[in-house]
Amino acid sequence: MALLDVANLSVWFHTRNGVTKAVNDVSFSVDAGETLAIVGESGSGKSVCCYSLLGLVPMPPGRVEQGSAQFDGRDLLHLPPRALRALRGNQIATIFQDPMTCLNPYLTLGEQLMEPLLYHRNATRKEARAQALALLDEVGIVEAARRFDAYPHEFSGGMRQRVMIAMALIAEPKLLIADEPTTALDVTIQAQILRLIAELQARRNLAVILVSHDLAVVADIADNILVMKDGAVVESGAPQTLFARPQHPYTQRLLAASRRSPKSTPATKPQRETLIEVSALCTWFRTSDQRLVKAVDDVSLELYRNEILGVVGESGSGKSTLGRSLLQLVRPTSGSVRLRGQELTTLGARALRPLRRQMQMIFQDPYASLNPRMSVFDALAEPLLYHGLATRKTVTAQVLALMDDVGLAHNSIRKYPHEFSGGQRQRIAIGRAIATKPQVVIADEPVSALDVTIQAQILDLILELVARHNLSLVFISHDLSIVRYLCDRVLVLHHGKLIESGTTEQLWKHPREAYTRELLAAVPRLA
Amino acid sequence: MLRFILYRLLQAIPVLLVVVTATFFLVRLAPGGPFSAEKAVPPEVLRALEARYHLDQPLSAQYLGYLGDLLHGDFGPSFRYPGRSVDEMIFSGLPTTAELGLYALLIALVLGTTAGVIAALRPNTAQDYLPMSAAMIGVCLPSFLLGPLLLLVFGVWLEWVPVSGWGNVPGDKILPALTLASGYTAYVARLSRGGMLEVMSQDYIRTARAKGLPEWVVVIKHGLRGGLIPVVAFAGPAFAGLLSGSFVVETIFQIPGLGRFYVQAAFNRDYTMIMGTTVFFAVLIVAFNLLADIAAVWLNPRLRHQYRKPAA
Q1: Which string of b and e fits B75-106 if b means at least 16 CB within 10 Å?
Q2: pLDDT of A421 strictly over 90
Q3: pLDDT tens digits for A295-316?
Q4: Do residues A231 and A21 lie in contact, with contact meaning Cβ atoms separated by under 8 Å?
């Protein structure tokens, strides 16, 4: 008998709009020392599945329709709330995705860390503090005693996740549920955190359920993988067999998305025309407490016609600020940005306006960057009419042509952003960006908010559009595997400085800088 | 933190100056003066009175003279109560009004947050609708209606409490405090419900539950602090409002407080008394807003941290 044995679990949500079968007839088991990975896209039911075991699904509207979850000889689904609460944080602990929002900003980290001991073990504050300090040390927080009374905002994302892990493990649980524990973190930090979890698991003989949207992340550490889609398990098995012979088309799609081949760039390019030329660009900010942040510091680059230039770096590396500085959405502190020889940094807002038509931007979150009160037609017609590229008579036909371009059905022309899925919304945002027939498009993490299989579709759309419309694209991303698939050349940013640049192939095969090597090594990969 | 307080104190200076200036000229724009009465006063007496109170001087001189006195904390003599200064009268009424306001504030905070938190724990159920409907009624019922109603029921019919007075018989402070508190209680209930609803849907509340903490610890320790920040921000201006708005309640229950002076002064064109009470209330409002802001900063570690750090 395994430590946790879930059989035929179904959790449905009963809402005014009908029944959503969030989890439908799911079975799995995990034993001490084992790692089970549950992989699926947003809405696949992977999180609900875990939370329902802990009684953390709001009921109503949620309801456990059927099934059992035997944990250590007891059925979690039928325990009285008080008994289940005694297990939570004690025998079964949880790590959540975003350590920023999952720690209480009003309480010190030390206080939050001690709580499981105080309430489950009736430990004295002194004992709890001693144990918490030892554990902080174990998860790699240096000078734990000094930082014990710090608040969450004083810690970086990776550090906060370490505290989260310590908090989960402090009561010595038998089962650890980690829900996307590294999704909000940079790739190098992700590697550290995954390593830490694996180490702690081995040391304590923990059973781990690792929930993730990314097959590559779980590939190395999982003993078993459960692939979920629309609330049901479509395929499960050991990673080796699953990766070697995926049966379900959905698993195959997921694998294909994780196994993109690198872009092959022709060795000799026909003469290259420089479109944008940036030299010694600096964009500095002052924070509210008067600290000077050199977001972009002395960066020089060229963007050639018809190429895709990748900009990679971790959060805070200045890659987004660089993109915005190119478009003069943020005014640089010094340096020059020239578009076909024309200096942009000295132009006033009015003089820039006609040039904006030639430079467009695609943002990360299509939901936030599209006006919720403008229909697809409004969003796409606005730039056309504003820049005088269409008349009232021709605009409908032009909008429809654009929708064809980005793969949106004609009958959705009157719909509003909230009526679309994330991928479709990004198609609208892309359509809006290319509406003015720009020469340069800057895409800032355009697929980061999307599910893996949708990502693949949007990336293919971008490649297609770049070829069809002779676009030059600056592709800003933290995801190196995507950059490798898409880009001709790559720039690596670190703390606002340009560390290294080169063709994609060059960079991957012979990275010069230590930081680039570290970055590349941290990317999770499928065997 | 000190920098923050100093900065806010500096900000208060122009605010107060505008209040003083506007009040000064507005009361003089109103027809009539402190000594116009139905029975005509002999012109020589009027002249003597005006000379006595400097009302014969040009307006600009009066204004500057008043500002000068104000800087020394001198609100001047009352025009209608000869021999008594405005300072004296304000400070004779203040203790009573302050006591009444304090009780009302305590009632509003305790009852209001309790109702709000209870409502927020089970939104859109009877547990939510009941206290919130009561709060709605509390907001709508004006105190000149609620006061007499309470008097009628608890004073006249049930004879549980005396019907008027302040501090004469035990229990005579209950009804005035309740009447004054009602609107504020309702508002606090709505604020705390909103704040708690938002906080209880945060990820860190789920974390607290996942740690297996008892529900009351989740609510009190993890929820309340963030959820009550809007209430704290409101408590400062509310207390100032309670002090300056107690006129109706003081009249209904025959309480010798500050509110009476304020309104009577307006009827009497008692220039210095109007000015004095207005400026006094303005100072109170500014001060309590500042206190509330300091409390809000103090409750939020992120802001606290920001203000603690000296400029680099």
Answers
A1: bbbbbbbeeebbbebbeebbebbbbbbebbbe
A2: no
A3: 899 999 999 988 999 999 888 8
A4: yes
- Chain B touched by A122 (CB under 8 Å): no
Please answer whether residues A260 and A485 qualify as being in contact, where contact means their C-beta atoms are separated by less than 8 angstroms.
yes
A35-39 and A342-343 as β-strands: parallel, antiparallel, unpaired?
unpaired
Three-state SS for A48? Answer: helix
- Find the closest chain B residue to A167 by CA distance: B211
Report the distance separating Cα B87 and Cα B73, nearest Å: 8
Please list, in sequence order, all residues whose beta carbon lies within 8 angstroms of the beta carbon of residue B215, skipping any fewer than 6 positions away. Answer: B209
Q: What is the pLDDT of residues A377-416, one digit of tens each?
A: 999 999 999 888 888 889 999 999 999 989 898 888 998 9
When CB atoms are compared, the residue of B212, B221, B301 closest to A88 is B212
Q: Which of A4-18, A473-487, B258-272 has the lowest mean pLDDT?
A: B258-272
- Examine residue B190 and state whether it is found in any structural domain, yes or no: yes
CA–CA distance, B177 with A367 (Å, rounded to integer): 50
Number of structural domains in chain B: 1
- In this complex, which of A56, A101, A153 lies closest to B302 when CB atoms are compared? A153
CA distance A187 to A487: 19
Mutate to test the interface with A, among B207, B216, B302 (most CBs of A within 10 A): B207
Print the domain residue range for B146: 88-308
Give the model's pLDDT for residue B306.
Answer: 67
> Does residue B186 lie in a domain region?
yes
Please give, rounded to a whole number of angstroms, the shortest distance from the CA of B207 to a CA of chain A. 6
* Whole-number Å distance between alpha carbons of A234 and B310: 57
Task: List, in sequence order, every beta strand (DSSP E) within A170-324.
Answer: 175-179, 207-212, 224-229, 232-237, 274-286, 292-304, 308-312
Q: State how far residue A187 is from chain B, nearest Cα, in angstroms.
A: 23
Place of tokens 């977001």: A295
Residue B312 to residue A290, Cβ atoms within 8 A = yes
- Tokens 């509207």 belong to residue: A61
Q: HSE on the CB side for A493, CA within 13 Å?
A: 30
Does residue B40 form part of some domain?
no
Q: Up-side HSE of residue A238: CA atoms within 13 Å toward CB?
A: 4
Q: Which residue do the tokens 């993730």 mark?
A: A212
Q: Which residues touch A520 (CB under 8 Å, ≥6 apart)?
A: A480, A508, A511
* Residue B254 in domain: yes
User: How far is CA B9 from its chain centroid?
Assistant: 19
Compare CB distances from B206 to A56, A85, A115 and report the shortest one's residue. Answer: A56
Which amino acid makes up residue A41? Answer: E
Q: In one letter, which amino acid is A429? A: A
A211 to chain B, minimum CA–CA distance in Å? 16
H or E element that contains B237: helix B229-244
Instruction: Answer yes or no: do A153 and B301 touch at CB < 8 A.
Output: yes
What is the CATH number for B177?
1.10.3720.10
Residue A61, preceding bond cis, omega within 30 degrees?
yes
Closest CA to B76 of B56, B93, B62, B60: B62
Q: Give the tens place of pLDDT for each residue, B217-240.
A: 999 999 998 888 889 888 888 888
d(CA B177, CA B181): 6
The DSSP output letter for B219 is I
Q: Is the CB of A300 inside 8 Å of chain B's CB atoms? A: no
Structure tokens at A30: 């995990």
Structure tokens that stand for A246 in this block: 């995926």
Closest to A154 in 3D by CA, of B299, B302, B311, B208: B302
Residue B17: count of CB within 10 angstroms of its CB:
12
* DSSP 8-state assignment for residue A6: E
Distance, in Å, from the CA atom of A167 to the CA atom of A176, rounded to the nearest integer, reads 11
The answer to ipTM > 0.95 is no
> Rg (Cα) of chain A, in Å, rounded?
25
**C-alpha radius of gyration, chain B, whole number:** 24
